[in-house]
Amino acid sequence: MGASCCHTPIEPAHDPRLRRALHFALWVNAGMFGVEIVGGLQAASLALWADAIDFLGDALTYAMTLAVLGAGLAARLRVARIKALMMGGLGLAVLAQALMRVGQAAVPEAPVMGAVAGLALLANLTVAWVLYRYRTGDANLQSVWLCSRNDAIGNLAVGAAALGVFGTGTAWPDLGVAALMAILGLSAAHTVWRQADREREAVPRSAHRH
Questions:
Q1: What confidence tier does 8 reach under pLDDT thresholds 50, 70, 90?
Q2: Running DSSP on this structure, what letter comes out for residue 171?
Q3: How far is C-alpha 160 from the chain's CA centre?
Q4: CA atoms of 8 and 6, how far apart (whole Å)
């Protein structure tokens, strides 16, 4: 995540490729939110629901990033912190739901989990590839890269949970993966918040108002 890109830097607000990439990521994530909500309901899988909520959060993240491209530092930092709070809140909500379901969760339908996770992985790998060149940008651009990275990791984990559910006949793998995805969301929220703090400290105080 700390490696730098080899292309010539372009101011994000004036990069039409970035706007196209963010619009593409926004619509892919919004569509996959609907797919995973339906799949999660059909499979009774908390891991799929967690991933669906994550897709929704990511769609909102991309929309907010598009809204502040070219805006002043103060606006960009506010949006970065809002996104950090949103990612953290979703992570806490999923973690709480996983803890509430311990000992009383029905066994999910592993084939449905695996099929939906495979489709979601394909979608997220495509988005991650499109956004890869922007992974070392400011807090807002870093947040969209973290979203796509965490989603791809989460989809692999949901696929592993489907295999675990199929092999054990219990809901524990599903609950475990849901908790893992919640922790990933909390970690990403912390990273984005710290990056926003570093950017705020790196510029003169007078620039914060513009």
A1: very low
A2: S
A3: 19
A4: 7
Contact assessment for residue 174 and residue 47, using Cβ atoms and an 8 Å cutoff: yes
Answer for the pair 50, 94: CB distance below 8 angstroms, yes or no: yes
> Cα separation of 54 and 188, whole Å?
12
Coarse DSSP helix, strand, coil percentages of the chain, rounded to the nearest 5 percent: 80, 0, 20
Distance, in Å, from the CA atom of 200 to the CA atom of 38, rounded to the nearest integer, reads: 41
Please give the radius of gyration of the chain, using alpha carbons only, rounded to the nearest integer: 18
Long-range residue pairs from 26-30, CB within 8 A, at least 24 positions apart, any chain: 26/59, 26/62, 26/63, 26/66, 28/123, 28/126, 28/127, 29/55, 29/56, 29/58, 29/59, 29/62, 29/123, 29/127, 30/55, 30/56, 30/59
Domains of the chain in sequence order = 13-209 (1.20.1510)
Q: Would you say residue 3 has pLDDT above 70? A: no
In whole angstroms, give the CA distance from residue 145 to residue 21.
11
The total number of residues written for the chain in this structure: 210
Rounded to an integer, what distance in angstroms lies between the CA atom of residue 79 and that of residue 72?
A: 11
Question: What tokens appear for 156 in the block?
Answer: 């692999």
DSSP run (H or E) holding 49 = helix 46-68
Q: What is the largest CA-CA distance in the chain?
A: 60
Query: Is the whole-model pTM more than 0.85?
Result: no
- Give the tokens for residue 80: 């970065």
Secondary structure E strands in 59-116: none
